[in-house]
Amino acid sequence: MTAAPAAPVSTAPVVLDNVSKWFGDTVALSDVSYELFPGVTGLLGHNGAGKSTTLSLMAGWTSPSQGTVRVLGRDPRAEPKVHEGLGVVPDSEGLWPFLTARQTVELLASQRGVAAAGAAAKAALERVGLTEAADRKVAGFSKGMRQRVKLAQALAHDPAVLLLDEPLNGLDPAQRRADVELIRRLGAEGRTVLVSSHILTEVERMASRLLVVVNGRLVAEGTAEGIRDLMTDRPRTVRISTDDARRLGGLLLADGVVHAVELEGEELTVETAQAVALATRLPVLAREAGLWLRRVEPVGEDLESVFAALTSAARGVGR
Amino acid sequence: MTMFGLALRALLFRGRTLAIAFLPLAIGIVAVIIRLAADPVDFDSAYATLGGNLLIGVVLSLVSLVIGVNAFDDEREGGTLPLLMSTSTPRWRIVGAKLAAAWITTVLVSLPAVVGIGVLGTGEELDTGKVWSSLLAATLLTAAAYTALFVLLSLVSGRGLFIGLAYVVIWEISLAGPVTALRNLSVAAYGRRVLGAPWAEDLVPFNIADVGVVVGGVVLAVAAAALGLLAVRRLPRIDAAAG
């Protein structure tokens, strides 16, 4: 008799396997499985979609109702030692108001096994641009400064995995730019970074890979471009500039590849539910009619609109 | 700064701690005034009332409640619990630091009442050494048991303060103290047993648990240790992200 082959063990720094989390009758996360690898991954979702629950599970703050979570090969709920290699920026604004920024970062670094916690705190505060305010009590800090203290404490012990829950909240535009750059660098250094946000344009600038969570379900996963590709069949709007917009609009309607046409001078805006068919038929129809196509461009192809479509498609799923 | 230093600082300078500190301060002042102004024949009943009934039965239970429950409630309400639970520190050390800080804070806050009542107690015919040693032992042991109970309560329920207040008022003050059959189930009754050491057992002027002085002290110490262990087991199971 031969033993059944063992299931392959994932080498990914963070693994969620069939994870669900419910609170009473409310399902916060439903049967989610994925792996995080080095680099920055964006976790997208509207408020209440399940982003913070996902990060809480990874940080070991709460238990999955079903499934398993592994961070650096450990169960983060049962093995606090995992925090020596894991840095977390919680969503809450909480910091001990009677401590200075330096005391806060130093305390938490020492509680994560850092021997030279003072030096580590100094370096982390410098990295987030808080050197000058390091010895002020955090009680007087703005939201943005608090956010930076939280980021510094997550970095001070030089973790391999970083979980950042809405890390850009409360930052002014200059700070946002600086932190986007910092997070990109952290990913480029080989760390596994998960950044949750509902602001897609920012996540796009930081993350090479995206996870989209809607109503507790993982509805899309991949690169920003890949997620757009998932949406080929959603209704799309295309703006076409040609020398006879009225005639081309009639041809497209007659062909059936568009269901609405709007004329504006030499420009034509069409709506279609068959983007691939439009892309194929448009040049054919234009050539047969002897028309020039000066410009063809999709409208609303930013990730925000893709996300809105995914959200809309998944509405009613889960909760 | 250590975990204990953080816990002690968080508890000592809280508004709620300062507010509850007025209770033992007022009782301490009343005790000293009685010592200075009253007829010495009244000291016996005054010591019994202030020490046995107010200090052990009311002050220590309420001060321990406010401080013990705050040990983790403050972290939860202030949003710092996730940070605390994002450390690799063994959870028993976090609970141990919180328990020790809550116990020391409770004793420090209760000190004016303890000192005032001690001064009052030395005015009667009791042995001065026994008055002070029994008073300090009763305070330390009763505070330890109550503190452990309320720290555990804060880890079990988000409404620890209300549940604890109901426990103190309904059980400790109204039922278990006055009703003889329930006395051996009351923390305060064991505390009063230790406080009553200077008197012969049948002459103790307040309600006590039906055990010897040493057993009374051991029961409080064991209760504190057992409740502390339950708190250690409970901390890893709480939802640290819940507000």
TrEMBL record, chain B:
Q: Which domain of life is it from?
A: Bacteria
UniProt KW Membrane keyword: yes
Keywords of the record, alphabetical order, are: Membrane, Transmembrane, Transmembrane helix
Does the keyword Transmembrane belong to this entry? yes
The transmembrane residues are: 18-38, 50-73, 94-119, 131-153, 160-182, 211-232
Q: State the signal peptide span.
A: none
| Alphabetical list of Pfam families matching this protein | ABC2_membrane_2
Q: What is this protein called?
A: ABC transporter permease subunit
Which organism is this entry from?
Motilibacter deserti
